[in-house]
């Protein structure tokens, strides 16, 4: 499968940044306050399960295991597994660096103490909201799996967006955090695929 150019309309940096800024000034607080009202509902419990799919260890271990299994038998399988591992790892490292530099307060600090915004160059769970790590993991993994199994790419992206959305539903991240993390995850996979994996992977059905 040929990935679209990163300058596509959906992922245009100007549009992405504009969306994040719009969320920060006009939407983030409104959305989080709305979902916070339903924090004890059944739908919230469902999304608590969904959000676990955004934990990076599943894809790091799975990608590494796939590479070990297929490295001597399938170039497509081994390269795809390595793409999955490297995409999740690279996006995760990038996210953690940005979190430490920007130190955006999580919704919890606003909901409980009224603090909203950034406290640059501070490290701590309550100050690492931007960008969303679960969202970056979900979209980097979904994009890698979509390349590896192109017939099911729609399902992978739907799953990825569900995981990313769960962070807002659970009031763990603001919408702007999720947008940033999702785009970062997607772009990480696109860049790694085009730079290091395209020539090594023969994708069935393309």
Helix content: 55-70%
What's the quaternary structure here? Answer: single chain
CATH superfamily: Phosphatidic acid phosphatase type 2/haloperoxidase
In one word, what is the shape? elongated
CATH fold node name: Vanadium-containing Chloroperoxidase, domain 1
Topology (SSEs and partners):
Layout: H1 13-36, H2 42-50, H3 57-70, H4 75-102, H5 107-113, H6 133-148, H7 153-169, H8 175-197
Report on the architecture of this protein.
- With 206 residues, this protein is mainly α.
- The protein has a single domain, classed as Vanadium-containing Chloroperoxidase, domain 1.
- It contains eight helices and no strands.
- α4 packs antiparallel against α6 and α6 runs antiparallel to α7.
- The mean pLDDT is 92.
Task: Give the structure's gist in a few sentences.
The protein has 206 residues and is an all-alpha fold. It has helices spanning 13-36, 42-50, 57-70, 75-102, 107-113, 133-148, 153-169, 175-197.
